[in-house]
Amino acid sequence: MKQTEEEFKLSEVIKLTGLSDQTIRRYQEDFNIQGIRTQGGHRRFKREEIDMLLEAKRLKEEHGYSIKQIRSHFNGETTSEMLEKNEPMKTVFEKKIVNLEEQLAEATEKIDSMVQVLTTFMKQSGQTNQNILSQFQDVLKALPETSTTTNNQRILEKEQRLNELKIRNKLKKEAIEKWGMLPEEERITTVKTGLFSFKREENYNKKRAFIEDYISEHLVDRLEREYDMKQNQ
Q1: Nearest-CA neighbor of 208 among 14, 17, 7, 5?
Q2: pLDDT digits (tens, 9 = 90+) for 117-157
Q3: According to DSSP H, which parts of 181-203 are helical?
Q4: Sign of the Cα pseudo-torsion (206, 90, 52, 173, in order)
Q5: What is the CATH number of the domain that holds 65?
Q6: Does residue 24 sit within a domain?
Q7: PROSITE patterns from the xrefs (predicted)?
């Protein structure tokens, strides 16, 4: 089978990812990374499959994700444990929780104030005032219910996860563009292909590190900017 530009040998994948053959096999099974089999039975991998292996490695090493959590990540799902381990997501999500708590505290304060006014009035007049009761009921309606708040938190978790994935993809595209603008001597390496033969190819390890560093450097700032923009809408 002829190897195309987008297919990589197992030995190349091991070199690019730093993962062992055994770990790659396990990740293929755990995360449904199919790979390709040549007519001779050799494994080949596409670039997007290598990216999945690298992402699984990053989540495990940097955030301590379990196999189940990494699988949830690839399925676009978010759990409270994943949120706790992912600091960029946690930072922005906590801001939203703080805002909800502030709104709840403000509504509670209004209710306490209305209760005091209503109690004082009833003691003085011995009868209720329809206007005060109406205001009191309006405040009660404005107070978010516990079930609604919990549901909002779940929606925010999912929304934040989707936002982070979108921003990561944008940053990855930006990083690839910036990588392509670097001088050739910084991007290209010489690889020995035979006893006396060599070839020049892109330094994939250096490129991967460049992309990961770029994303790490800009992710939190982009998440916060995205959150601020939504708050101002």
Answers
A1: 17
A2: 666 665 565 555 556 556 656 655 665 555 455 566 666 66
A3: 184-187
A4: negative
A5: 1.10.1660.10
A6: yes
A7: HTH_MERR_2
